[in-house]
Design a protein that fits this description.
Blueprint (H helix, E strand, L loop, with lengths): L1 H35 L15 H13 L2 H5 L9 E3 L3 E3 L17 H10 L21 H12 L12 E2 L1 H8 L27 H8 L3 H4 L30 H10 L15 H4 L4 H12 L3
Antiparallel strand pairs: 1-2, 2-3
Length: 292
């Protein structure tokens, strides 16, 4: 009797293991097929100007859009994450130095990457958060491209990006977007420019950069990267129910909340948000405060 029960248990366990293995084989195959899919988009290239005002704006955008958080301050790229289960995530060298994409990308390629998450080969750019730059105005897009294309050449040898089992599973379940091309509204028509005076509308434009971690609802929840802390609710049903505008600005400038909590930059990039102007932070506060 005991032997029979053990055989049944062993068979059940092996069956579950086999089913899980088959499921992962499907997930891996599905991811690889989607990663090889070709996308063709006609793009409109804004006028790229290299005057000083435009380059200053582009530099500012490279900080508040997180470009330098991922690609390093010199835009030369780095290994952002190398986890045996999740994958090796490697934002590339954006400059015209050796191994940099800057010498290979045309202005059309830059727009295609930033608006659609697609490379010059028409294949998806892995882990490139184009869903956070797709809505940029023509003016901001032009300034960011101008700044990136004139960056000092950096020569840096980097390994290839590699999405491993956990990364593929998280992507399959929509928990981590390894293929942002799939979640972008490719019919979106960008504004020529944006009124950057303090307003909820300007705040909404800026808040797109928050959706990568706090989700489109801004209510946070489970982290997208395993072993990271839960993501905070940044709407009026979360911390903003208690925080004043001054509290909000102080938190995003210093990384210290009104309650005295010190935020770790790798989980909440306050060193990036500290570069926001007062008007940008006030606008962001107005927008998020109005989110229920």
């Amino acid at each position: 009797m005991v032997k029979r029960i053990l055989k049944i248990v062993l068979f059940s366990v092996l069956s579950v293991v086999l089913l899980l293995l088959l499921f992962y084989v499907y997930v891996s195959w599905d991811f690889n097929q989607r990663a090889k899919k070709s996308y063709t988009y006609d793009v409109s290239v804004p006028k790229i100007s290299y005057d000083s005002a435009n380059l200053v704006l582009g530099e500012h955008l490279s900080v508040i859009k997180g470009c330098r958080d991922c690609h390093e301050n010199d835009l030369g790229g780095r290994v952002l994450i190398d986890d045996p289960a999740l994958g090796r995530l490697v934002p590339p060298n954006l400059t015209k130095g050796e191994n940099g994409i800057g010498s290979q990308y045309s202005h059309e390629d830059w727009v295609r990457a930033l608006r659609h998450g697609v490379g010059p080969d028409q294949k998806p750019l892995l882990f490139m958060p184009a869903h956070e730059t797709a809505n940029m105005t023509e003016k901001d897009m032009a300034a960011l491209i101008a700044y990136c294309t004139q960056a000092s050449p950096v020569t840096r040898s980097l390994p290839e990006i590699e999405i491993r089992p956990v990364g593929k599973l998280l992507n399959f379940f929509g928990k981590m977007h390894m293929l942002p091309v799939e979640i972008i509204d490719h019919d979106f028509v960008p504004l020529a420019d944006m009124d950057k005076r303090v307003s909820p509308e300007f705040g909404e434009y800026l808040a797109v950069s928050c959706t990568g971690c706090h989700y489109s609802t801004f209510k946070g929840g489970s982290p997208q990267i395993p072993d990271s802390p839960p993501v905070a609710d940044i709407t009026s049903s979360g911390n903003l129910a208690r925080w004043s505008e001054a509290d909000f600005i102080q938190t995003l400038r210093t990384g210290k909340t009104p309650e005295g909590k010190i935020m770790q930059n790798e989980f909440m990039p306050w060193k990036m948000t500290s570069a926001f102007t007062d008007d940008e932070l006030k606008s962001l506060y107005l927008f998020l405060k109005n989110q229920q």
